[in-house]
Specification:
heterodimer; A: alpha+beta; Monooxygenase; four-stranded antiparallel sheet; B: mainly alpha; three-stranded mixed sheet; 3 strands; disordered C terminus; F-box_dom (chain A); F-box-like_dom_sf (chain A); SCF_F-box_component (chain A)
Chain lengths: ~375, ~160
């Protein structure tokens, strides 16, 4: 049914469907699901359309979920919107458990207190789906076959030689399937017990001081070993997903980083522009927090004990988020302007999850 | 054409309420609809734009002139667009989105759509209905059912309820 007009002049609801479609695409998923869908039946039907949902994913801003590990419901979403840094809450869903990974708005939630019972969750549409027991780890989207797959390293502590990988296609598989890892040496396979990162069509296992990464093509289900660039085998590497691609950062000084990005199709690394934080602003913010809010007096950031760790990208490398570990202070470095924004987590000395995420209306089971 | 002779070519556009507007060709061809007419040689006399009224066309031409005066700097163009739309009311925005669609101006279309959506963000359903003049066509029972459906956390695959 179409909405009736109240006014004779041009108003929003007299617009043709295809223009209303365009307008609603710009709304965040939470606003659509919790609001716009109730306005009238036309809007509900428009926003439930599969083409709308797919188009909406591409328009949504990739950001970062931050979750306080001891209070899992305290999760926030960081994003750059219209050139500005924003923090928002998840208004449609309360996270009950620890988050592990995200792809196109679907997160993996893992109940560590209950034998690691795990779920695929869309917090914007308040839906969740139970994953077969045993494993939990990562989720990625195979676009050609239009399916979501949950992937996990399958570790057995008593039998390290059986370290492998399992996969479960959402809505298709009854149970976990084994992914071939026989072509990989035991030493190479060792990083399969790390938490992998999801990018567009791939899942990557990495370790900060390893000379290689393992990359699973989610479509073909083939795992490839990719060496890190020459000279970077031993140094500490911060691996981050932009949502689309895999990057790693290495510290050059206390507040400057080299950035490398993986070309997933070829397995080649490309060096991007260095990131150099504005130390003066950083120091100023830090010292002010120290005085005003009695932030943990770790050390001023120009002193050698402070560690400012890169934890995630916002909007495909528009901004880099860094955590002044282990304080509650975080910095947002906007790459183009070199402006610094900052925010505070709940507590000092606590563990936080940082997961690349975008809000979407994607439905579980049928994609 | 303009670039070759050094004299800017001017086009005459006619709104659906018979107002005439002169605009530099270089600015007007931001509209793919107008550019196609120019390339097909149909732009000799007056170009009739049957779906755009004079008030809206005047506004679109202001935008065409403003944005084409900015050199290739996407940041500056973006801030011009933001400023241009900042004082427009709802009806004007609705007219603009129709005009941008008819004239095939994707950047303007995108900016106006985003602006309209921005007004809806974090607003109640009732507020959006009132502001946009939309009649609630849900029966109370239907509305309760949809609310209930959206409220619960389902554990299982959703039913295929669309086509």
């Amino acid at each position: 049914g179409s909405c009736k007009r109240k006014s004779s002049s041009t108003n929003i609801e007299s617009l043709p469907d295809e223009l209303m479609f365009e307008i609603l695409l710009h709304l965040p998923a939470d606003d659509i699901y919790g609001g716009a869908a109730f306005v009238c039946k036309k809007w509900r039907d428009l926003t439930r359309d599969r083409n709308f949902i797919n188009e909406h994913i591409h328009r949504s801003t990739p950001g970062l979920v931050v979750q306080f590990q001891r209070q899992t419901e305290n999760a926030v979403f960081l994003a750059m919107r219209r050139g500005r840094f924003e923090i928002s809450k998840f208004s449609n869903y309360n996270f009950k458990h620890l988050l592990r990974a995200s792809c196109n708005g679907l997160l993996i939630e893992c109940d560590t207190a209950n034998g690691c019972a795990s779920f695929v969750v869309n917090p914007s549409t308040n839906r969740r789906l139970r994953i077969p027991p045993g494993y939990y780890s990562s989720i990625a989207y195979a676009s050609a076959s239009m399916s979501y797959k949950v992937v996990s390293g399958s570790t057995q502590y008593d039998k390290p030689e059986e370290l492998g990988c399992v996969i479960w296609t959402v809505g298709v598989d009854k149970s976990w399937r084994t992914v071939c890892t026989e072509h990989l040496s035991l030493a190479t396979r060792r990083i399969l017990n790390t938490t992998p990162l999801t990018t567009e069509g791939f899942v990557h296992w990495s370790s900060p001081e390893s000379g290689h990464i393992l990359t699973l093509n989610i479509e073909t289900e083939v795992i490839t070993e990719i060496p890190v660039p020459k000279g970077y085998e031993r140094g500490w590497k911060f691996y981050l997903s932009t949502g689309t691609s895999l990057t790693f950062l290495t510290a050059m000084g206390w507040f400057s980083f080299e950035v490398w990005e993986l070309r997933q199709e070829t397995g080649e690394w490309t060096k991007l522009h260095d990131i150099e934080l504005d130390c003066q602003v950083l120091g100023f913010v830090y010292l002010n927090r120290l005085i005003d809010f009695s932030l943990v007096p770790l050390a001023p950031p120009n002193c050698s004990t402070a560690t400012v760790n890169p934890v995630g990208w916002l909007n495909c490398k528009e901004a880099l988020v860094l955590h002044a570990f282990p304080t509650r202070l975080c910095f947002v470095h906007i790459v183009r302007t070199r402006e610094i924004d900052f925010f505070e987590l709940g507590h000092d000395f606590d563990s936080y999850n940082f997961i690349a995420h975008r809000n979407s209306l994607v439905r579980l089971g049928r994609c | 054409m303009a670039a070759e002779t050094g004299t800017p070519t001017t086009l005459t556009l006619k709104s659906n309420d018979d107002e005439l507007f002169s605009v530099a060709e270089s600015a007007a061809i931001l509209s793919v609809t107008i550019r196609n007419m120019v390339e097909d040689g149909c732009a000799g006399g007056v170009i009739p734009l049957d779906n755009v009224d004079g008030k809206t066309l005047a506004s679109v031409i202001t935008y065409m002139n403003g944005i084409s005066a900015i050199p290739a700097d996407e940041e500056k163009k973006k801030s011009y667009r933001d400023k241009f739309l900042s004082d427009k009311d709802f009806e004007t925005l609705a007219d603009m989105v129709l005009a941008a669609n008819y004239l095939n101006m994707s950047c303007l279309m995108d900016a106006v759509s985003a602006k309209i959506a921005q007004v809806m963000e974090k607003k109640s359903v009732g507020w959006v209905r009132r502001k946009f003049g939309i009649e609630n066509d849900y029966t109370p029972e239907e509305e309760a059912a949809v609310k209930e459906e959206h409220k619960w956390t389902f554990e299982g695959v959703e039913t295929d309820d669309d086509n």
